[in-house]
Amino acid sequence: MLAHWLAIFFTFIAYASGASISEAELHDNTVSDNDILDASHSLPDLIHMDAVPSDWKTSGALLLEEGRLRFTPEASSQSSIWHNTGYQITDSFTMEWTFRSVNFIGKSEGGLAFWLVDEKSVGGNSLFGGPDAFDGIQILVDSNGPVGSSIRGVMNDGSEKLTEQNIYDHSFGYCLSAYQDTTIPTTIRLSYDRKNNNLLKLQVDNRVCFQTRQIQFPNKAKMIMGITAKNDANKESFEVLKIHTHNGLTKEVTIPNVNPMEQPRLVTKIINKDTGKEDVVETDFMKMKGLASRVDNYELYKKLDKIEGKILANDISVVNAKLVGILENQASQLRKLEHLSTTLDIIIASMGKEGAVNTESFKDFFAMNDKLEQLLQDQAKVREATKKSMENGGHSVSVDEIVKRLLIWILPLIFIVLVMAYYTFRIRQDIVKVKLL
Questions:
Q1: Which residues form the signal peptide (predicted)?
Q2: Out of 65, 116, 164, 266, which residue is the most buried by the measure of CB atoms under 10 Å away?
Q3: How many domains does the chain have?
Q4: Angle, alpha carbons 54-59-186 (nearest 5°)
């Protein structure tokens, strides 16, 4: 009995300590965004700067005024800013840019581009103010594409020169964005996680624009960060308010995807020549691109794309890893508890006769139990006899007399039971002391 209660007690202690250890481990693993901020590759506080730091190289019409970098301060202008040293890519990174476009809305040949390219790619300015044959990734913000104002990702290995006309055919992902002529800035966040099967994700104002696992950056490769922009013959002003670079994943990146950006939809207006009725029908982008020439392959591609999207949209690998850690910790605590229980059994067995219960001490208690059982049987007989007498209309012993007789027996028995309970309690206390010794 003692071993049983001790086992329950230590089980509670082990469970409580295991839960607290697991929570502590999760807390220790939590790193703030400021802890992983790469200050040398960031411009987080432009409002307090009088000039661009020497770590960055600027060109063109770029202006720093009122806490913002103005890339196109006048019509038909362009400019750029590039970091002087390469950023080394390890297992993960997060890059955030906050920008806005003011003074113009509509289709324009201008655009704002964010770059992460090989060192040899820096130098040209023919592609939205940047290089046309780059080796790396470009995030392009413009309104001249087939779907209007959008944010898209473009990859190139440096073997092909891209132009501002064919760049839309080389994008691997994009989403709609109403960024033009608004006083509210837009924040885009590019993140990469090598340990999560090379997950590359772009978020716009904390909403997923696109993500893929088909792109892998070379390990420990040094790549140059930059921003370029150009505008058309209009007053569209591209402005950057903040640049953040983190050597890891920020908290916003690890949140599961629940709020994706709106994706482009192509529609066709059909007018009935007889009735004049107009209908708007959504046209599949794949068909517009001629990828549906073979129905079987096209349908298969659509299904695979849908499955991949659902898998990526419910990416909870980070949460799963933490749960696995908690389960492993609980298993370790259970193994310790089993070892403790085995040790207690060995200690109790080694106590021998000293720890055995003396059943002779309970002899009077057992006798009292027999008397109580006999009393209950006599009471049942009396109750049965009384019942029969009342049914036959006869006269028998009154109820009051029966109660008096029962009290004569019960009161001494109650006293004896109390005495026996007291001695039983004292005996158990002595047994516990013997076992502990």
A1: 1-18
A2: 116
A3: 4
A4: 85
C-alpha span between 422 and 83 (Å, rounded): 87
**Alpha-carbon distance 236 to 104, whole Å?**
5
CA separation for the pair 325, 437 (Å, rounded): 41
Strand duo 56-60 + 207-212: pairing: unpaired
Say if residue 195 is in the same domain as residue 330: no
State which H helix or E strand residue 433 sits in.
Answer: helix 399-436
Same domain, 78 and 201: yes
Q: Per DSSP, what are the bridge partners of residue 269?
A: 280
167 and 122 co-located in one domain: yes
The whole-angstrom distance between residue 54's C-alpha and the CA centroid of its chain comes to 38
Residue 7: enclosing H or E segment and its boundaries? helix 2-28
Q: Phi/psi at 47 (nearest 5 deg)?
A: -65, -25
Q: What is the pLDDT of residues 164-179, one digit of tens each?
A: 999 999 999 999 999 9
Query: 3-class DSSP state for residue 274?
Result: coil
**Is residue 252 one of the residues assigned to a domain?**
no
Q: What H or E segment, with its residue span, contains residue 176?
A: strand 171-176
Could you tell me if 239 and 182 lie in one domain?
A: yes
Residue 307's identity, in one-letter code, is I
Q: Is residue 258 part of a domain?
A: no
Most confident of 40-54, 355-369, 373-387: 40-54
Q: What is the extent of the structural domain holding 367?
A: 359-436
* 372 and 271 within one domain: no
